[in-house]
Amino acid sequence: MFLKKLIVYSLVVLLAVLVLFMGASSVGWGDVVANIYGHIAYGTPLSSDGVIIYEIRLPRIILALIVGGVLAGSGAVMQGIFKNPLIDPYLLGISSGAAFGSALSIGLFESLPVGILAFIGAMGASFLVIVIGRFAGNSSVSLVLAGVVLSAFLSALSGSIKFFVDPQKAQAIVIWLLGSLSLSSWGNVGIALAGFLIGFIPLFLLRWKINILGLGDSECLSLGISPSKMRFVCIVCISFACALSVSVSGTIGWVGLVVPHFARVIFGSNMRDLLGGSVALGALILLGADTIARTATAYDLPVGIITALLGAPFFVFLLSQFANRWNHQ
Predict the structure, then answer these.
(1) Given a cut of 50, is residue 213 above it in pLDDT?
(2) Under a CB-based contact definition with an 8 Å cutoff, are residues 118 and 184 in contact?
């Protein structure tokens, strides 16, 4: 298992280094590294190549790694605590809430930053899902149904805003919904990193309890663990981390759904290894997808398009596997 982790982590670092010096503008390795070191250590001005590497590419690479890790790690935890392999973190209403917040900002309240309203919308939607789920029985099924219903409602509100605003604003909303890392900055990196640290440190510390939660509520109670409280803590941590990530990247789909299954094949189902493996694999895959989005055409494609093109076929395969299993039962 240690060797598998080492290989995946090494691939993440290797791809990040390769992508850093990849692009339309060729740069010299030695001069740029020396220039960036001088800028950080002594405050010397960046050269044109230094600006490209340090101010544009490096924040984008780090943001892709953080957002990919957050989405994939959250998906692994969600699938574990709900015992459903077809669940992703957006089921909590994070995606639809963030979309509604961004639609409000772009379409109606232009003076308010998109990221702030997207974060408020994502956290507000997650809170409502928890509240509705508690009133509906406080079970995993009620939380799932509450997430589905609220997501549909918020998506309808976002669609209404897109319908009534002018075409330029509607197009801006659609582009944000597709997810993009093209506007990455060190400020956005700091926001996403804060969400990752605050949300995932508790999850890493509690991952043995998450394993027990995946066995069932009766097993948790027999070991003195409250399943409802544990589920609540996990959902709050996931919601906070994903909301901050979505607020700076838009809604990037499929990573939280598909990547945990790849990680489960490599690292197994034990959350002790699966959580870290999913984070690393999600970072690797989203960075690869963003590299394709950035270099495949003359335009900077939204990375959500690439993840959907790659993730949808795998989801169909996954669905067929479960269908075959159900037919044989």
Answers:
(1) yes
(2) no
